[in-house]
Amino acid sequence: MKITHEFAVTRPVEAVWGFFQDVPAVAQCLPGAELTADKGNNTYGGKVSVKLGPLTAVFEGDAVVTSDSQAHTSVIDGTGVDRRGGSRGHVKVSYALVDLDGSTKVDIDADVQLSGAAAQFGRTGLINEMTTRLIDDFVACLEAKLAAPTLDEAMAISNPTHVRGLSFFWASLRAWLRRLFRGRAP
To answer: CB count, 10 Å around CB of 147?
Structure first.
């Protein structure tokens, strides 16, 4: 499944790039993500926890980050396994930062592959809506960390360690249905 998204951050590109290079800070802002190890050579161990109705998946695995500081682009290639549920996931995320006269536009392209029980939630419209909500949470955390007056205050800001998927799912479903039926009313 392909996911594309863009958002703007009200900070200069160099500040945003610096933040994106701080993998522990980025992990703190990703809902459901936990960084468990820096394995060296731009390889990180971690896990992502998601609860969708009766399904709770905890994907544990590795991600390799390849960055180009001149172009302000990176590729994150991650794989994970939910040992309890038998699901597997692979994600390849590319992002690019673009200077917007003092602000920064972030373009994201992701290719997500799920197998096992988690694949049943791979309905593109709902996954895209949920992704939008997750990115909105990430951006709010990123902005708060960059605006924090001290490093200690910035480090204290984070998103939940797991995504509460059922309420998240229903909010996403309602938003998706509103967009689907917008314009169809007489």
So the answer is: 12
**pLDDT tens readout for residues 125-138:** 556 666 777 788 88
Q: What is the pTM of this model?
A: 0.79
Q: d(Cα 109, Cα 160) in Å, to the nearest integer?
A: 24
Written out in words, the top-level CATH class of the domain with range 2-176 is alpha beta
User: Which distant-in-sequence residues (6+ apart) come within 8 Å of 144 by Cβ?
Assistant: 157
pLDDT tens string 87-102: 898 999 999 999 999 9
Task: Please state, as a whole number, how many other Cβ atoms lie within 10 Å of the Cβ of residue 24.
Answer: 10
Dig out the tokens for 100 from the structure.
């917007």
List the end-to-end C-alpha distance of the chain, in Å, as a whole number.
34
With beta carbons less than 8 A apart as the criterion, state whether 21 and 67 touch: yes
